[in-house]
Design brief:
Blueprint: E1 4-7, E2 19-24, E3 38-42, E4 54-57, E5 61-62, E6 66-67, H1 99-107, E7 121-126, E8 130-131, E9 142-143, H2 146-156, E10 163-167, H3 171-183, E11 187-191, H4 202-210, E12 215-216, E13 220-221, E14 227-229, E15 234-238, H5 242-260, E16 269-272, E17 283-290, E18 296-298, E19 313-319, E20 330-335
Parallel strand pairs: 2-3, 7-10, 7-11, 8-9, 11-15, 13-17
Antiparallel strand pairs: 1-3, 1-4, 5-6, 12-14, 14-15, 16-20, 17-18, 17-19, 19-20
Helix pairs in contact: 3-4
Length: 337
Amino acid sequence: MMDGVAFDSAKTGASAALKIAGLHAAGDPPPRPLEVGGAWEIMTGAALPADCDTVVPYEDLLESFTLTDPFKSGQFIHPRGLDAQEGDVLVSAGNRLGLAEIAIAASVGKTQVEVFRCPRVALITTGDEAVPVDAVPEPWQIRRSNGPMLEAALTRLGCAPNLTLHVSDDPEEAGKAIRHALENSDLLILCGGISMGKKDHVRSLLETSLGPPAFHGVELRPGKPLAYWSGPPQVFALPGNPVSVLATFTRFVLPALLKIQGLSTPLMLRIPLEDLTPLPRFSWLLPVAVAANGQLIPRPPRNSGDYVSIAGAVGIVEIPPEKDFTPGQSFAYHPFP
């Protein structure tokens, strides 16, 4: 594990002048046996000679390879089988193949491994009022922000959408897009058109193909109109307001995406927050940012379309409805992708 000298500790005194037999480098085959009092100059990564059991680094030697300090038998040696034993599971199912996992696979000669394929994700945003990002909106219009935000989130998760559409509130146009997405996805995410408005057609259009939703409406703010179909394919119909989209995507869609990929969902952290007044009936998905001292601090939006107030937020804290609240009480934390 160090550049230095290797020798048999049982045959070498603490202040011995070592007789160097030669250089044994990483990648060299086993060398010849040493004479009594002999040692090899050895390089990091070399296989330990059979008649050596200790390494002393160069910096712990005097000139002419004389030992200066007492050494410990077996020091600076990485024994065979120390990291793992034959038959050990090195990477269990349910883990994403990150940098360390790829290195492990390479080190044991696994040129091919069995994995879950990335799900095909379709993303449809809706609304007559939403114009392209590069357009100049009229006073009665807004630029589309939900699509770019969700595309970025999905790409970070390794699930860049294979289909991205924006449709008007016309039922015929929206219905055609939804049917196409249902046929070409494992997971469909819709934004808008799922509330109680006269032009909210998403539920009825989905029911034509998938039947009634598993649920439509949750006691949650933001995100009350959320709806879900188990499919196939699975469908999440998110509200249209931007903060609602971000909060419900993080709380509901993200765990589903992980499960589809065979990944373990992360454990929910519990963090304390001060000076909060829970909602009387609804659970509250509260955006939070990181303060200079490392603590999470609330970033409550002024309304469901207010991205500006939550700039710098790193996740949401889920606050259940409660009558009594203790300052410093802990709540479940869900990080953004």
